[in-house]
Amino acid sequence: MSKIELESHARIRLWRASIQNFLYGSKAILKQHGVSSRAYHAMLEIWAAPEGKGLSIGPLADLIHLAHNSAVGVADQLCKKGLAVRKHEARDKRVVHVQLTDHGRMVLAALVDDHLRELNKISADLRRVLS
After folding, report:
1. Contact 111/43 with Cβ under 8 angstroms?
2. How many CB atoms lie within 10 A of CB 20?
3. Cβ neighbourhood burial of 124 (10 Å; 0-12, 13-18, 19+)
4. What is residue 47's predicted lDDT score, i.e. its pLDDT?
5. Quick one: how far is CA 86 from the chain centroid?
6. How many CB atoms lie within 10 A of CB 99?
7. Residue 87 belongs to a domain with what CATH number?
8. Cα separation of 104 and 49, whole Å?
9. Cα dist. 10→6, 71, 93, 121, 127 in Å?
10. What is the CB neighbour count within 10 angstroms for residue 57?
């Protein structure tokens, strides 16, 4: 193998190991908070929705890369745990948006803080991979 091939292989190996370490830590964080990976992703996307009005299921499904019916299940989970609510749009009652509750925003903040700590653990390796 050439020097370039060796360096390329080593960089990709380090990247994969770093991502796997992050995902391993993330799995533990999510389990501690009782939130699935899909629910966490949905919470982040709902939080990021413009004007704080939340997201309807179609756009949420697209953003979290799920089929519509699977996104409904994720929204059901969030609502059942008190992390989100469904609200009808004032102008068109047929349109329903999923919004985070105050409790949901608090849980999301804790999840983000824990994930940032996990990301900091691998940041040096990621800088080496990207340099």
Report:
1. yes
2. 11
3. exposed
4. 97
5. 19
6. 19
7. 1.10.10.10
8. 14
9. 6, 38, 55, 19, 14
10. 18
Number of Cβ within a 10 Å radius of residue 55: 25
Residue 93: predicted pLDDT:
84
Q: Is the pLDDT of residue 92 over 90?
A: no
Tell me whether residue 72 is exposed, middle or buried, using C-beta atoms within 10 angstroms of its C-beta: 0 to 12, 13 to 18, 19 or more: middle
Contact between 65 and 74 under an 8 Å Cβ cutoff? The reply is no
Question: Rounded to an integer, what distance in angstroms lies between the CA atom of residue 20 and that of residue 52?
Answer: 33
User: What DSSP element (H or E) covers 116?
Assistant: helix 102-130
pLDDT score recorded for residue 121: 94
CB 14 within 8 A of CB 129: yes
Mean pLDDT confidence for 3-18: 93
What pTM, to 2 d.p., does this model score? 0.89
If DSSP codes are grouped into helix, strand and coil, which group holds residue 89? coil
- Structural domain that includes position 97: 3-130
Amino acid at 73: G
CA angle 41, 43, 48 (to 5 degrees): 100
Q: How many domains does the chain have?
A: 1
